[in-house]
Each structure stands twice: as C-alpha cells, then as structure tokens.
Amino acid sequence: MSEKEEKKENIMGTLGITRLIMKMSLPLMISMLIQALYNIVDSMFVARVSETALTAVSLAFPLQNLLIAFGVGTGVGMASYLSRKLGEKDTETATKAAGNGITLAVITWILFAILGLTIVKPFMALFTDDAELLGLSTSYSEIVMIFSFFMLLSMMNERILQGTGDSFSSMLSQMTGAITNIILDPVFIFVFKMGVNGAAIATVIGQAVGCAVSLYFVIRNKYIKIKPQHLKLEKRMVASIYSVGAPTIITNSIGTVMTGAMNAILIGFSTTAVSVFSVYFKLQSFVFMPIFGLSSGMVPIIAYNYGARKKKRVMSTIYIGTIIAIGIMVVGTIVFNLFPEALLSLFSATEEMYRLGVPALRIISLCFVSAAISIGLGSSFQATGYGIGTMIVSISRQLLVLIPTAYIMAKLVGINGVWFSFIIAEAVGLAVSLILFIKVYKTRIKPIGEKEVISE
Question: Which of 111, 331, 378, 431 is most enclosed, with most CB atoms within 10 A?
C-alpha cells in the first residue's frame, strides 16, 4: 500500500458514529423498505388472482427463503472478512475476499438450479394434495430457483459495496431491481394472464436488472479492483468467509424449517390460516426489513473498527444502532395494534381472514421490541467473526422454543395460542442474545484496546 493510500483512511474509521450509521444504514434501510414494499405489492397482486394463488406463494416461501439464506449468509461472511481486512489496511486480501465471494455465489446458483429441477414438486406434495395448489406452488418455486443466478450475484455485489462503505450504490441497485419488479408484476400477472408464474417471471427480471446495476458499481468501486485472478478460490479464505457465513446460512435456513413447520400446524386449522401467516410475514417485513438494513450497515462499521482496534467506536455503533432499532419497532408495534383491519384489507381479505388475522397481527407484534434488541446485538456477532452466536440465538428461538410451543399451544388454546408462541420464543431469543453478547464483549471486544480516532 502506498503512503498516500495509508493516509487516506476509510470513513468507517473516522466519521462520527451517529452520522456514520446514518450514512451507511439509511440507504440500506430505504432499499429494504422498497424490498418490503415489493413483497407486499407482489402478494397483493397474487391475492387478487385467488386465495389459492396466495396460499401457493406461501407454500413456496420456505424454499425461496432457503435460497436467500445461502445468498445472504455467504455475502455476510465475505463482507465481514472484507471489512476487517480493510480495517487492517490489507487491501489485496480484501479484494481476494470479494472475488472469492463472487465465485461462491455462482457455485451456489448451480446447486440451487439443480435442486429446482429435482426436489420442488416432492417438497410441495408434503403440504398439499390439492392439484391446483400443488401445480401453482411448484411452478412458482421452479422458476425462482432455476433462474436464481441474478439474485445470488446481486446479493454478493451488494455486500461487496456495503463492506467497502458504499451503501448508497448498494441501495440504488436494490431499489432498481425492486421497482422493476413492482412495475412488471401486474403486467405479467394480469395483462399477459400468467398468474402466479407471471409474478415469478417479474421477480427474475427485476433481479437481473438489479444485478446489472450492482455489477456496474462494483467495477467502479474505489477501494477494491477485482481482477480474474481474484476469482480463484483459496481454501483459507473460503474457510474464513464461511466461519461467519455458515452460521448465518444455518440461521436463515432455520427460517425455512420454521415456516414449513408453522404452515403444517396452521393448515390443520384451514388454508386461510396459512394465508394469514403469509400475510403477517409480508406486513412485518415492512418493519423488520429496515432493521435488517440498519444491521447490514452496522456490521461493516463494527468489523472495520474491530480490525482497526477501536473499541469505543465498536461499542458506540452497537449502542446507537440498537436504540434506533428499538425506536423503529415501537412504531411498528403501535401500527399493528391500531390498524390491523386496514393492513389486512391490502390483501383482499375475506371475512375469515379478518377473523383470524386481526388478533394475529396484534398478538405477534408485541414481540417486535425484543427482536430489535436481539438483531442489534447480533450485528456484533457477525462483525467480530462470532457468526455462530447468531446461529445459536436462532436455533434457540425458532427450533427449540417456537415450533414446539406453537404445536402445544395450538392443541391447548387454539389458533391464537400459535400467535402467542412468537412472544415466548422472542423472549428466549433476547435472553440468549444478551448472554452471548456478554461473552463476545469479554473475549473479543474488551481486549482490543483503546486506539481511538474519532471525528465527531
């Protein structure tokens, strides 16, 4: 590294923490809001086709979520490693990490394309024997998985941009893809009369557009310049990426198991109950997605300053970010409790959907604030290389508590008992997060010293 480059430190090591979080996270939060809006609009259009079409997309969600889990997990592992190396002023290794990440994204696509061609129909048959529902859910999932190349590469490109501190470009690529999707949804669903398959095709095209934009910004990035030789996988680097990425993949994959199990529990009540659960997930994404955007902005800041051994900046980022997350969740809880009917009306709700959905939204939203704290603390796990911490929290919350509790409460209390199980599970998740954060602080953050360079 030249003397000029040594003097030019990344803003993640110098800018005031509150300003830096806003600079890094606000673009991501906006783009995540657009993504959440897409999720809602997509389901609104599908719901207008029929309730069966909405249920089909709901049944497809676990496989779609598994695909996203691998994309996000690999990207998080790469970005955490890249940011730490930039903090250590090791630009060459950071660039290799980005190149390896791109190669891993392509390999992941190949694996999921094969799965899309082989396992989708047998998987869907586990949940329904209704011919129409089976056909719709199968075709939707096959399209999304076989053509997932653009989504996976786009995710990796966006994490590269975030890892180097360029959240604005990441926001533009995500927004472009999501807006394209929103525009094309009604065209393919209604104008071309393609129904659920039209929604899947619109999704793939939107991902392709977003991928092209993200690739343009990666090529123009001023901190790293990826060349063909950087795409060659290195065992040590892949191991470092997945030391954080694998637990994140497992964590997000647990969501697939959880959603599948909850669908199995709820379909025992009715297909409408499954649709209500899907609608809740779409609506809560409008609250959670900005929090995930905030967390995505926090991770490279914490990782960079952890690599640069600036403890005060690490702790300030965790504290301020968590406070912001709590504020967002408080607003979300209020909205879900005051306006559940209005929210459900967006999905052409039937009388039965209102009957089941209103208490669902009010009850589950009571766990939002505790979830915000867990997510804020979880950012420190990923950033400091303790990705297994996030996995432990997720396993505790979703597998060990939520699914068994939902099953038992469904038998004892009825469907509202299923919704209350979310509150119990999130309380356990918060307790585990606090315990693990204390461990991370004592073993990783506290020992790094007080080398501070803060420009407030």
Answer: 378
